[in-house]
Amino acid sequence: MSYLLKRIAFYLFTAWAAITINFFVPRLIPGDPVQALITKARGQLTAEAVQSLYVLFGLDSEASLLDQYVRYLGQLLRGDLGLSFTFFPSPVAEVIGDSLPWTLGLVGITTVVGFLIGTGLGTVAGWRRGSWVDLVIPVTTFLSSIPYFWLGLIAITLLTGPGSFFPASGAHDTGLVPSWDWEFVGSVLQHGLLPAATILISCMSGWILSMRNMMVTVAAEDYVTVAHAKGLSERRVMVSYAARNALLPNVSGLALSLGFIVGGTLLVEIVFSYPGLGLQLFQAVGAKDYPLMQGIFLIITLSVLLANFLADVAYLVLDPRTRREG
């Protein structure tokens, strides 16, 4: 319990530090973000309207930096991430809320599936060294060395076009209203197949190689030898003794991967014009939409912290040594 409380305190402090950095970094960037909005209005704003915009975006020159920081913390506690410049006057939380489900559905599912398949194949490959399963490793390693976006471009070139089952871009057919009917769900699945396959092929190899190496190391441990001497079945020794201990490094890797899911796979989303947070971040950087960038960076940071905290909890369950003091 003491270990868990220490980890909670550490993550709360880290979250506060991340929020503070997220506040100061955009204000240290040269330039005036509000000017982009004024330029869009082609100078048709009065001095009072311009001043109102500065106050609205929390950049009031009459307020000290400390006052702006306290106001920013108060906004975050209310769940207010500010207003987007690009989608003005839409709130940043609304813009992120529209894009986040697409990223979670695409990158989240493929990450978990890639972890399960890669860990399973790595377990078998490490336990049965020299078998046919070892042939999978060079193939997946070669495929994972190809960048995400390059695989995406190859897939679009070879598998899309007139009469093809696979769409080249978008998340669903134009004209469809988002709903839970079969037509819309089927369209979403059809549009997500190619980008999902691209991500899955690229990320699966790392899990396979990592798990295989750990299984080779763990298989030589004394407790595995003792389990064999007890007459336990091969499958039970592999799963309950070897794989359970070899899994710990992969749990940490999965936690980091899950944390970065909300950031999307930027280049894949750009290649396939998939409306996730990665594409949204790319557009925000191009438009100098600082509130939207702040909001996305904050969501990514907090997600990584939450995922690491869950990994610590998983360690408590998987490894009894972490539950002991000293």
UniProtKB/TrEMBL annotation:
It is a multi-pass membrane protein. Its main location: membrane. It is found in: Cell membrane; Membrane. InterPro entries: MetI-like, MetI-like_sf. Residues 100-311 form the ABC transmembrane type-1 domain. One of its GO terms (biological process) is transmembrane transport. The keyword Transmembrane helix applies. GO terms for cellular component: plasma membrane. Keywords: Membrane, Transmembrane, Transmembrane helix, Transport. The chain crosses the membrane at residues 9-29, 102-127, 148-168, 188-209, 254-275, 295-318. It comes from the Bacteria. PROSITE patterns: ABC_TM1. Belongs to the binding-protein-dependent transport system permease family. PANTHER family: OLIGOPEPTIDE TRANSPORT SYSTEM PERMEASE PROTEIN. This is Peptide/nickel transport system permease protein. It comes from Goodfellowiella coeruleoviolacea. The lineage of its organism: Bacteria, Bacillati, Actinomycetota, Actinomycetes, Pseudonocardiales.
